[in-house]
Automatic annotation (TrEMBL):
SUPFAM superfamilies: D-aminoacid aminotransferase-like PLP-dependent enzymes (SSF56752). PANTHER family: AMINO-ACID AMINOTRANSFERASE (PTHR42743), AMINODEOXYCHORISMATE LYASE (PTHR42743:SF11). Its cofactor is pyridoxal 5'-phosphate. One of its GO terms (molecular function) is branched-chain-amino-acid transaminase activity. This is Branched-chain-amino-acid aminotransferase. Signal peptide: none annotated. Pathway: Amino-acid biosynthesis; L-leucine biosynthesis; L-leucine from 3-methyl-2-oxobutanoate: step 4/4; Amino-acid biosynthesis; L-valine biosynthesis; L-valine from pyruvate: step 4/4; Amino-acid biosynthesis; L-isoleucine biosynthesis; L-isoleucine from 2-oxobutanoate: step 4/4. Its EC number is 2.6.1.42. The keyword Cytoplasm does not apply. GO terms for biological process: isoleucine biosynthetic process; L-leucine biosynthetic process; L-valine biosynthetic process.
Amino acid sequence: MASFDEMREAGDIETIWQDGEFVDWEDATTHVLTHGLHYGTGVFEGARAYDTENGTAIFRWEDHLDRLYASGEPYEMEIPYSKEELTEATLELLRRQDLKSAYIRPIAFFGYNSLGISPADCPTDVALAAWPWGAYLGEEAIENGIDVMVSSWRKYASSQVPTNAKTTGLYVNSLLAGEEARRNGYQEAIVLNKEGQVAEGPGENLFLVRDDEIFTPGLSQSILDGITRDTVITLAREKGYTVHDQATISRGELHTADELFFTGSAAEVTPIRQVDNVQIADGNRGPITEDLQSAFFDLVERKTDAHDDWFTYV
């Protein structure tokens, strides 16, 4: 991925929507004593817009917005803009930057006023940004897969903090796991939950294929209820596969899987070829993974008319 400065020089990014106004990229600033900076009290989303045969379209935007607002609820964070206002601002942001495809980042956080742990006196600030972003784990990863390790860091439990909210501060858990993997020569990590069962990746949900059936950890395993996860489950069932979407997967089952793959708004559908230096099957993208990849990309590129209600056209 190019740096933001490189994208600015190329003219790919110029504008951010911040608290109701479009501002130049370099002017989208916040105070160093912002509550969200000190305590991680923010919620965010990551969505993609695709350059489809029917024009630029945001994939499952309404679902992403619903989750953004739901993520704020445990923190009593009231987002001071309607979903309709954020939608129109996002569409205009894509138009102003002439982005045919993009990664979109909405974020809401407790802003500047006081620095007690309680954010009661702090405003909720909201921003929207969009930029070009190719394959999150690398272009070759989509076909060839990636090597991962099981991290020594565990996923926090829902009894500790909300696991189904995309909270900014909680992503230090993802950072620790992912950076540990990269230091050890892997491209990504898998995290276990506190019970030692498979949870997910640092920013992805995980799927396992065994005997032509598909398994993915359930919400009780401390995972995020991923929107791409739900998409792949839907597509797999439409294609006739048996999907166990509340599975409990042990660490040992990873090594004996027929296929493994990640899903996520950024990662899309990415095969896993090795776990802890143990090759998965023949080390290549498996046939079910490839089948679901094709179905996913046909869908988001609108090569099929299916699920048109999942798309918001610019």
